[in-house]
Amino acid sequence: MSRFIIIPAHNEEKNIEEVVKGVDNLGIKPVVVDDGSTDSTFNICTNNGAIVIRHDTNKGKGEAIKSGLDYLLKNYPEFSHVAVMDADMQYNPEETLKIFNMLENKDLDFVMGHRNWGKVPFRHQLGNFVWRNVFNIAFKTGFRDTNCGLMGFSRNGAEKLKGHILGGYIVDNSILIGAVKNNLKIDQVPVKVSYHRKSKVTRGVRIVLGVLLYIIREGVRYRLGRKR
Question: How far apart are CA 79 and CA 56, in angstroms?
Fold first, then answer.
């Protein structure tokens, strides 16, 4: 068994069974990190044959991804590639096949999806437009998406990047920045996305500013030659 899919989940009883079954139908083992759920997420996952790693408290998506990667690296020497997807069906499990195919066929360390912006709510488009352009200027890159939650790692990529994963809304950027700083082999692939909810304006502004400041700070560090 060389492919796995890590699914961070916190109180996702509404969608998690569909996600786990969708992954299992692909012939890939789902690894659910139950991040302190207080609903039926844990029982649903164990009853549907997923590998389940359980956090006693809610530690956030970043810590959930790290727990999943640590588990696979320690327990599955044959593990070669892993994708990460959310538990809310924002991305269909079948979209992970695009990630795996890109990783394997192009011998890459890290692949991040890029979304069709015409399918994204305008306020999310705006925030991502700011992040993406500032990121590309700061790191001298040309990524089409710098905040997509659907991504994948080779084993080498997982080993190199698990120490770079941070929590909160900067998690996706922290991984991508780690890949750039470590000169890993990176590419992107178009993926379909479905939004079930929109961020409130005040919350959205706060998130945009917080992530933007992180990108700028890390961009300055990168330009100064600091790897960490």
Answer: 26
CATH code of domain 3-119+143-192: 3.90.550.10
Give the start-to-end residue ranges of the domains of the chain.
Answer: 3-119+143-192
Contact 175, 110 (CB under 8 A): yes
pLDDT tens-place values along the chain, 228 residues long: 599 999 999 999 999 999 999 999 999 999 999 999 999 999 999 999 999 999 999 999 999 999 999 999 999 999 999 999 999 999 999 999 999 999 999 999 999 999 999 888 888 899 999 999 999 999 999 999 999 999 999 999 999 999 999 998 999 999 999 999 999 999 999 999 988 665 566 777 889 999 999 999 999 999 988 655
